[in-house]
């Protein structure tokens, strides 16, 4: 699957993943009003509003980006109807030819971790049939429980041609409370990066492993060091835009050939119509504003990182 992601990045010329992290506050009023009119003030109405919002944005940007990253918590907050919308979103993105990174941040041990891997990357065996429950192409994985928690996902990657991104150095301000702690003179995130290399050593495609890493744009110096430490791991980079990361911060995440990293923007894309520079589009043209934001992000990254 990592090979397919690289192919899509090269085809679009955009190492960008759009984070489909909807919140009712981001959704234009006319969409919410229509959903409430149909379903009442209910979880079903919220889920329907999210679906209509996602659908329009996917249609507007699917030819520009290689991948999307729905954050499952934004769907779980609306209960079972929300999870149904998550699945509909994954399926529709696949119909549009997009790679789907399920931002699920799962991690447990033994059969529980295996069940998470099956839910998001694998298939459930039911009688004579095998059915993919959610069907993402990649999943984000929390490594805090160690190899016991990660290896079931690595196994699923091999069995189903999927990929994972392991949390190594996250973009949030308090990440250093644990991730920067020194162990035998080295920060914890470097020890995790070492394990990423180990977990993905025998699953290479196009020179990259199916086991990638999450490293935040908000820590560019650490990102550059981790790029060198994990030369065969693709890096998923959150923190661009709304969290403060800029194109000029990202160069160290890439290899000289322009590969090796994919940059996520969530609110900066899906809620672009609320930003001053795109306000002229108005609520009714929110999807066109998202498209303009993707084009501007692509230009920013190319000028800062991919020109030599």
Question: What's this, in brief?
Answer:
The protein has 308 residues and is α/β, with parallel strands linked by helices. It has helices at 2-12, 29-39, 43-61, 73-76, 79-95, 110-120, 147-160, 176-179, 188-199, 220-229, 267-270, 286-305, and strands at residues 16-18, 67-68, 99-106, 124-126, 129-131, 138-141, 163-169, 182-183, 186-187, 204-205, 208-209, 211-215, 235-237, 261-265.
Description of the molecule:
By secondary structure, the protein is α/β, with parallel strands linked by helices. The chain has a single domain, classed as TIM Barrel. 44% of the residues lie in helices and 17% in strands. The chain has twelve helices and 14 strands. The strands form four sheets. Strands 1-2-3-6-7-12-13-14 form an eight-stranded parallel β-barrel, surrounded by seven helices. It has a two-stranded antiparallel sheet with strand order 4-5. The longest helix is centred in the C-terminal third of the chain and has 20 residues, at 286-305.
Write the layout of secondary structure elements.
Blueprint: H1 2-12, E1 16-18, H2 29-39, H3 43-61, E2 67-68, H4 73-76, H5 79-95, E3 99-106, H6 110-120, E4 124-126, E5 129-131, E6 138-141, H7 147-160, E7 163-169, H8 176-179, E8 182-183, E9 186-187, H9 188-199, E10 204-205, E11 208-209, E12 211-215, H10 220-229, E13 235-237, E14 261-265, H11 267-270, H12 286-305
Parallel strand pairs: 1-2, 1-14, 2-3, 3-6, 6-7, 7-12, 12-13, 13-14
Antiparallel strand pairs: 4-5, 8-9, 10-11
Helix pairs in contact: 2-3, 3-5, 3-12, 6-7
């Amino acid at each position: 699957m990592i090979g397919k992601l690289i192919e899509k990045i090269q085809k679009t010329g955009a190492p960008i993943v759009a984070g489909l992290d909807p919140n009712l506050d981001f959704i234009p009023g006319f969409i919410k009003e229509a959903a409430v009119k149909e379903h009442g003030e209910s979880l079903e109405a919220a889920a329907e509003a999210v679906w209509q919002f996602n659908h329009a944005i996917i249609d507007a940007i699917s030819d520009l980006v290689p991948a999307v990253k729905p954050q499952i918590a934004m769907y779980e907050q609306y209960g079972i109807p929300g999870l149904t919308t998550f699945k509909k979103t994954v399926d529709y993105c696949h119909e549009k030819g997009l790679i789907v990174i399920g931002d699920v941040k799962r991690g447990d041990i033994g059969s529980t971790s295996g069940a998470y891997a099956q839910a998001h990357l694998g298939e459930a065996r039911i009688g004579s049939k095998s059915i993919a429950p959610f069907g993402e192409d990649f999943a984000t994985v929390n490594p805090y429980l160690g190899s016991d928690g990660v290896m079931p996902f690595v196994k699923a990657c091999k069995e189903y041609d999927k990929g994972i991104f392991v949390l190594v150095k996250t973009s949030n301000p308090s990440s250093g409370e644990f991730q920067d702690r020194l162990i035998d003179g080295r920060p914890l995130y470097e020890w995790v990066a070492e394990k990423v290399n180990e977990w993905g050593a025998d699953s290479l495609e196009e020179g990259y492993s199916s086991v990638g890493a999450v490293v935040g744009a908000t820590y560019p110096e650490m990102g550059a060091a981790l790029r060198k430490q994990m030369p065969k791991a693709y890096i998923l980079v959150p923190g661009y835009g709304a969290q403060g990361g800029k194109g000029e911060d990202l160069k160290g995440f890439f290899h000289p050939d322009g590969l090796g990293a994919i940059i996520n923007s969530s609110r900066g894309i899906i809620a672009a119509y609320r930003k001053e520079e795109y306000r002229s589009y108005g609520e009714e043209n929110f999807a066109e504003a998202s498209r303009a934001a993707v084009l501007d992000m692509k230009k920013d990254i190319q000028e800062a990182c991919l020109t030599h």
